[in-house]
Design a protein that fits this description.
11 helices
Length: 260
């Protein structure tokens, strides 16, 4: 216990007021998107946090917040989620999450920024094309989708693109789709947290930043949810696509400038 307290005290020069303020602002903006769209926290938080910290810090902060935020929604979501597909999705994600986390610990920062931007743009394309399937996919494609989601989760705390594309295209009620994504994001957050701890990406500093951002995440989520209740389906989809596209472009521009 004394060692932990000493570690936290040593963070004084690292957790500067500017870093804390910027982190909380990024978390708040990403939480509004999460509350409005029902998903997308990490998709927004990682590129935004990555504007002023390296991906090896931004990803663990997003993982911690995604985990804590999803725990709040978990009990209600389990009542209407689609467990048959979630079981196979999680099998694939469990296999690939450590692979993505290991890759993240070895790639240059600008390259990681560009990969994160590309993942976000994939989510934009998936949402914009509006895939629709007549029947539920079988075990193999569902597991493969989970594998892709886990790989993205370990690499950039972004399991969203494959998972969102899958659940938005299958013939399930809207409530089941939303609940399934909430449960999936919680379970992938647990896997990502475990992988991050194993390879040393999760530090006392990133945990502290996650805890500091949690109140603003909750407030932002509530504001986003209130906006969702007052909006319509067309506005909801349009805002989601535009927001994620702008975030991806800004993050990509920063990554390219660092490479040059």
């Amino acid at each position: 216990m004394p060692d932990v307290l000493l570690s936290i005290a040593a963070l004084g020069p690292l957790l500067t007021p500017r870093l804390i303020a910027l982190s909380i602002t990024a978390v708040f903006a990403a939480a509004i998107l999460r509350g409005f769209t029902g998903f997308g926290f990490a998709l927004a938080a990682v590129p935004l946090l990555g504007l002023f910290m390296p991906p090896t810090q931004a990803v663990p902060v997003a993982i911690g917040l995604q985990l804590m935020g999803s725990l709040i929604d978990f009990r209600h979501a389990t009542k209407s989620c689609h467990w048959p597909s979630l079981r196979w999705m999680m099998l694939g994600a469990a296999i690939s999450s450590p692979i993505g986390a290991l890759v993240l610990s070895h790639v240059p920062t600008p390259v990681a920024r560009l990969v994160i931007s590309a993942i976000t743009l994939l989510a934009v394309l998936a949402l914009g094309r509006g895939f629709a399937l007549a029947t539920m996919p079988g075990r193999a494609p569902t597991t493969f989708t989970g594998f892709l989601a886990g790989l993205f989760n370990g690499l950039a705390a972004m399991p969203g693109p494959p998972a969102v594309a899958y659940y938005m295209s299958v013939p399930l009620p809207r409530a089941a789709v939303r609940a399934s994504l909430m449960v999936f994001f919680l379970l992938t957050s647990v896997a990502a947290m475990t992988s991050g701890l194993a390879i040393g990406l999760i530090t006392v500093q990133t945990l502290c930043l996650s805890l500091l951002g949690l109140p603003m995440m909750w407030i932002g989520t509530q504001i986003g949810h209130m906006a969702f209740v007052r909006s319509n389906d067309a506005l909801h989809r349009r805002v989601s696509i535009i927001s994620l596209g702008l975030i991806a472009l800004v993050s990509a521009a920063k990554g390219i400038s660092e490479l040059l």
